[in-house]
Write a structure and sequence with these properties.
The complex is a heterotrimer of chains A (545), B (272) and C (310). By secondary structure, chain A is of the alpha+beta class. Chain A folds into two domains: 231 residues, D-Maltodextrin-Binding Protein, domain 2; 211 residues, Dipeptide-binding Protein, domain 3. Helices cover 29% and strands 21% of the residues of chain A. Chain A is built from 18 helices and 19 strands. With 272 residues, chain B is an all-alpha fold. Chain B has a single domain, classed as MetI-like fold (Orthogonal Bundle), CATH 1.10.3720.10. Helices cover 70% and strands 0% of the residues of chain B. Chain B is built from eleven helices and no strands. The longest helix of chain B is centred in the first third of the chain and has 37 residues. Chain B is elongated, with a radius of gyration of 22 Å. The C terminus of chain B is likely disordered. With 310 residues, chain C is mainly alpha-helical. Chain C folds into two domains: 86 residues, no CATH class; 214 residues, Orthogonal Bundle (MetI-like fold), CATH 1.10.3720. The N and C termini of chain C lie close together (10 Å). Classes of the chains: A alpha+beta (545), B mainly alpha (272), C mainly alpha (310). The interface between B and C is large, with 61 and 68 residues. Chain A: One of its GO terms (molecular function) is peptide transmembrane transporter activity. Chain A: This is ABC transporter substrate-binding protein. Chain A: It comes from Fuscovulum blasticum DSM 2131.
Chain lengths: 545, 272, 310
């Protein structure tokens, strides 16, 4: 379903962003789609979409710039738009608010032509000043907004942040609908500017003082009500810039992370689409009716057990490899995760442009693991403490690993903590080993920066230090030729795979359940819960009609 | 219902659970933790696994047997702590009155007004989740109930004849409180205390729901039940059997409390 | 009576002061910070952003300084601004307090309407099938964890019968209130039934009833007349305690039913180490408890004049 009137325009000049995006698209043949999600049909307007913000019982903030939480971003899809967007049909970043972009020869300056029919919910047209103001807001001196790191590479951003300049020199208005962004070094702006953290907001609304309880954007729905801790709703925005969209008259998100209750609500027909847990997946897949509405998505998240390379025994690469050989991932994925995961064969996940389809995973080979441990001089066995949260993907997986590790002489004890405490312990270098899921897309290079020795511990959590690896990354970053770049990225990923600073577990398979009356739900590999709500429509059987 | 039936039924259930807990190593066919084997994950009940297995392939019957130890221990330890603290404070506050009553009342209000979960959360963050945090969080905070009940009772009984006469006979305050007042107010207290054992077991289940209970893989009935709630449709036995055990335990303690009440009630015999 | 009120007010102020101090210090020293909680999700917020957040919120200042700042605001009635939402905590609380209050009232109403008569009749028919049935029901009510009871109610009333919505707050009507209120009310109902039964039996066995009975008065009338004076103290205590702690004790049910209550705000804010929000939520919970408590104490005075407050 190609929907965007703002689809990428290939200009006369060589289009770096487009090339990169297309290489990303080429690598994702493996993603299964449910038949009905692709099914054609004439979209019907009307009805109220019943969606879910499924990762917590409250939203963190209604200011899209201030939150990087997945469920807040899912909600932002209804109210806000960014310069770029993730297009699930092609698995790539596409232009959203601009009709075209031109790239300078050095690949550092991007000139955008905005669409002339974009309006904010307050009725005012979106112009170049709004883009510049929105990005400047994120980079304002004293700002603590999440997207600072996305925009820091813009020329003059650091000076502005530090209060040394009055404007961000890299952001320039050319006319009301034209502006340019200049970066310090080559960057693919699509990867940086497609999420809600860089949404374009109207200054007057943000500064009105009521923005946090009454958000205004240029998205398909206007804000109606937020009952904190329960629900947020909106109604169709008549001046939305995509003709005929959104299809639904209204939208409601129930905010909850209780999947047993969500299951009941979905079966009762109160929810149109929701993500499923492992058990929900098993159950719905077995059901002749419910299984028709399943959408399976290979997400760009890599689940792993991180290891602190500054601590023994993880300073020895043989120990880390031994752990990777010692555990039977297949049975964990099949039995515990109910096949709601894909075995990891590297840091970069299946849909990533840097994914290497030919790489072989670590085999389940306890003998080899024992041999490696013996080589490392650990014949008497070895023990460590793993920090986990009380979740299936964390403590559950650790418990399932324990017998396999015990079989090769590794004793592991769990330390269960809150998610925030876990991160703190990792960042301070206090946790010897931990379980985590990392976002590893869509930009493969920034995903691999998790092992860049120059990055702080909060990014390079394992404390991986290898200048050879850093050099490969830098080379990839400086390479303009897409094929060569992908080759370098794969080389870097292979390097990490061999050095094994983590136990490679799986890439999450997200599963969406959709009702028979719901159409146009996309499979978003960056986060399945973030659904492009402007294209979702309800047929005549929807209960909300 | 015959008088004493509660006592026997309740006592019987509790005795069975006690035996299960004490002889768990003899009764349980598998180790509750280390028997994890994904090859046998979510096996339905059968000859090999009497009550089936959980998602890690652990025998549920064995986990329930060992879980009896943990759940009983939590219930009893917590309730002993609570009752000891609560009754001493409540009795003395009601009897002595004055500034001591003020302090106890203030303390009671403080403990009552702050939800147990706040203490639980803080303790988990400091000590880490687990049995010690759980025992402190539940055992040091839930005494307010028995404290207030005993205080209220003392206040109504203080002016009654038997207390007055004990006083005029020259007995000291400790004697009056624990020998005269306590037996006379023990009826409701026993009800509260025995139910408290059950509710402490239940509280652990609720905290498990919020991820604050006994740390897996150690089996507690509440924890098993809570973590199984999503499996209800996939593998119902994982949820049902711990749920039944929990139900039986709480039922047993309540019946026992009722029975004990009939037995200990100083006036009860006159009722026939 | 005025004296009692003043005394209560003083106590309340003291309690609040202790709670506020305790909570602030406790949640400031335990592991985890607001900044670290932001990285708990799969997406990484960069270290620089985290540093900026900490600087902006003054989280690097020494604890006494932070506490002083908070107390200075509180003294002026300012609950501060939430770290996470950046909104005034008072605004965040206003909607949630009402939702919590409605839920608690509905739950206690359910508990009283069912539990009180059940307990009373069970006691009057002590040893009969009614007694057995009632007490079995009460015990069962106490033996099922709230999240299971809630799930079962959901399955029956929304999935199978389609009578009521599964979860959510709706537009503030009754429809969405019923299931969570019953779930929350089951345990207090059971407790109330049992306490009432025990209290009525106690009353039946007391000296003056026996005296009256020996004079040939009807038992039911006797109990009814004296219930107010004796058993009510016990029953009132139970109701007061149950009701008073409901705002903070309904977290599990709020989570299950996506109910926008104070309890889930508390839990979420603790997870985020969003201290102003934690403080605000606890303050509301504590104040509500103290208020109910005071009302119950005043009711004691009315019901049973033998209880004397100095």
């Amino acid at each position: 379903m190609t929907h965007s009137p703002a689809s990428l325009v290939l200009s006369r000049r060589r289009m770096l962003a487009a090339m990169l995006a297309s290489t990303a698209a080429a690598a994702v043949g493996a993603i299964p789609f449910a038949a009905r999600a692709q099914e054609a049909g004439t979209p019907r307007p009307g009805g109220t979409l019943q969606m879910v913000a499924p990762f917590g019982s409250a939203l963190q903030s209604l200011d899209p710039h201030a939150t990087y939480e997945s469920q807040d971003m899912a909600v932002s899809k209804a109210f806000h738009r960014s310069l770029y967007n993730w297009d699930s049909a092609t698995n790539s970043v596409v232009l959203e608010l601009a009709s075209e972009v031109k790239v300078s020869d050095d690949g550092k300056t991007f000139t955008y032509k905005l669409l002339d029919n974009i309006y904010f919910h307050n009725g005012r047209q979106l112009v170049a000043d709004d883009v510049i103001w929105s990005y400047s807001r994120i980079l304002a001196p004293g700002s603590s907004l999440s997207a600072i790191s996305n925009l820091q590479n813009i020329k003059g951003a650091q000076d502005y942040l530090d209060g040394k300049a009055d404007t961000v020199t890299g952001l320039a208005k050319i006319d009301d609908l034209t502006f340019s962004i200049t970066f310090d070094s080559f960057a693919d702006p699509g990867f940086l500017l497609f999420e809600a953290v860089t949404a374009i907001l109207p200054r007057e609304a943000v500064e009105s003082g009521t923005f946090l309880s009454n958000p205004v954007g240029c998205g398909p729905f206007t804000f109606v009500e937020h009952i904190e801790g329960s629900r947020i709703s909106g109604k169709k925005f008549d001046k939305y810039f995509k003709a005929g969209k959104p299809y639904a008259d209204a939208i409601e998100f129930t905010i909850t992370d209780d999947y047993s209750a969500l299951d009941v609500a979905f079966r009762a027909g109160e929810i149109d689409a929701t993500v499923l847990s492992e058990n929900g997946y098993v159950l719905y897949a077995q059901d002749p009716e419910l299984s028709k509405g399943l959408i399976e998505i290979a997400e760009m998240f890599t689940r792993h057990m991180g290891m602190n390379l500054d601590m023994k025994p993880f300073d020895d690469v043989r120990v880390r490899q031994a752990i990777n050989y010692a555990v039977d991932r297949d049975i964990i994925i099949e039995k515990l995760l109910k096949n709601k995961a894909f075995k990891a064969v590297g840091w970069l996940p299946t849909p990533s442009s840097g994914f290497d389809p030919d790489r072989k995973p670590y085999a389940f080979d306890p003998e080899k693991a024992k041999a490696l441990l013996a080589e490392a001089g650990l014949t008497d066995g070895v023990s460590f403490e793993a920090w986990v949260t009380d979740a299936t993907s964390s403590l559950g997986v650790l418990q399932a690993m324990t017998p396999f590790l015990a079989a090769v002489g590794i004793t592991v004890t769990p330390k269960v903590v809150e998610a925030g405490v876990l991160v703190e312990a990792i960042n301070k270098g206090e946790a010897p080993a931990w379980f985590r899921s990392n976002g590893t897309g869509p930009d493969p290079i920034s995903a691999l920066r998790s092992f860049d020795s120059r990055r702080p511990r909060s990014t390079n959590r394992a404390g991986f230090k290898d200048t050879a690896f850093d050099a490969i990354l830098d080379e990839a970053m400086a390479t303009l030729d897409p094929a060569k770049r992908v080759e370098l990225v794969r080389k870097a990923d292979a390097y990490i795979f061999d050095q094994a600073p983590v136990w490679f577990h799986n890439y999450n398979k997200a599963v969406l359940a959709t009702q028979p009356w719901v159409h146009g739900v996309d499979a978003n590999v960056t986060e399945a819960a973030i659904i492009e709500v402007d294209q979702v429509w309800l047929d005549e059987n929807a209960p909300s009609r | 219902m015959k008088a004493g039936a509660n006592l026997y039924v309740g006592g019987g259930i509790i005795l069975l659970i006690f035996l299960l807990a004490v002889f768990a190593p003899l009764i349980a066919p598998y180790d509750p933790v280390t028997s994890a084997n994904l090859m046998y994950a979510e096996e339905p009940p059968g000859a090999q696994f009497w009550l089936g297995t959980d998602e890690q392939g652990r025998d549920i019957f064995s986990r329930i047997a060992y879980g009896a130890r943990i759940s009983l221990f939590i219930g009893l330890a917590v309730q002993v702590m609570n009752t000891a603290i609560g009754v001493s404070l409540g009795l003395s506050a009601g009897y002595i009155g004055g500034w001591w009553d003020e302090i106890v009342q203030g303390l009671t209000n403080l403990m009552l007004s702050i939800p147990t979960i706040v203490f639980a959360l803080a303790l988990m963050a400091i000590l880490g989740p687990g049995l010690p945090s759980l025992l402190i969080a539940l055992g040091m905070t839930d005494w307010a109930y028995s404290c207030r009940i005993s205080r209220a009772q003392v206040l109504t009984q203080k002016s009654l004849n038997y207390v007055q006469s004990a006083r005029t006979m020259g007995f000291g305050p400790l004697h009056v409180m624990f020998r005269e007042l306590l037996p006379n107010i023990s009826g409701p207290l026993i009800v509260v205390a025995t139910m408290g054992v059950g509710s402490a077991i239940m509280a652990e289940a609720s905290l498990s729901f919020l991820g604050l209970g006994v740390v897996p893989p150690n089996p507690s009935w509440g924890g098993m039940l809570s973590s199984a709630r999503e499996q209800l449709m996939v593998a119902p036995w994982v949820a049902v059997f711990p749920g039944l055990a929990l139900f039986a335990a709480v039922l047993g303690f309540n019946l026992l409390g009722d029975g004990l009440r009939d037995l200990l009630d100083p006036h009860g015999k006159g009722r026939k | 009576m005025l004296n009692v009120l003043l005394r209560r007010l003083f106590q309340a102020a003291l309690t609040v002061l202790v709670v506020v101090t305790l909570v602030f210090v406790l949640f400031s020293v335990i592991p985890g910070t607001y900044a670290s909680s932001l990285q708990a999700d799969k997406r990484d917020v960069s270290a620089e952003v985290l540093e900026r957040i900490e600087a902006e919120l003054g989280l690097n200042d020494p604890l006494p300084q932070r506490f002083g700042r908070y107390m200075a605001g509180l003294a002026q009635g300012d609950l501060g601004v939430s770290y996470a939402t950046k909104r005034p905590v008072a605004d965040m609380l206003s909607g949630r307090v009402w939702a919590s209050f409605r839920l608690a009232c509905a739950a206690i109403l359910f508990a009283v309407c069912i539990g009180l008569p059940l307990g009373f009749f069970a006691a009057m028919r002590r040893g009969s099938w009614l007694d057995t049935a009632t007490m079995t029901l009460a015990v069962s009510g106490l033996s099922i964890p709230a999240f299971w009871a809630g799930l079962v109610l959901m399955y029956v009333f929304s999935l199978k019968l389609h009578w009521l919505p599964t979860f959510g707050y709706g537009s503030g009507g009754l429809k969405h209130l019923i299931l969570p209120a019953i779930t929350l009310g089951i345990a207090p109902m059971a407790l109330l039934a049992r306490t009432t039964r025990a209290a009525v039996l106690e009353t039946l066995n007391s000296d003056f009833i026996r005296t009256a009975r020996s004079k040939g008065m009807s038992e039911r009338r006797l109990v009814l007349r004296h219930l107010a004076r004796n058993a009510f103290v016990l029953v009132l205590t139970t109701i007061g305690l149950q009701f008073g702690s409901m705002l903070g004790g309904s977290v599990v049910i709020e989570k299950l039913f996506a109910w926008p209550g104070v309890g889930s705000l508390l839990i979420d804010s603790v997870g985020l180490r969003d201290i102003p929000a934690v403080q605000g939520a606890i303050l509301v919970i504590v104040l509500f408890f103290l208020l109910i408590n005071t009302l119950v104490d005043l009711a004691y005075l009315v019901v049973d004049p033998r209880i004397r407050y100095r």
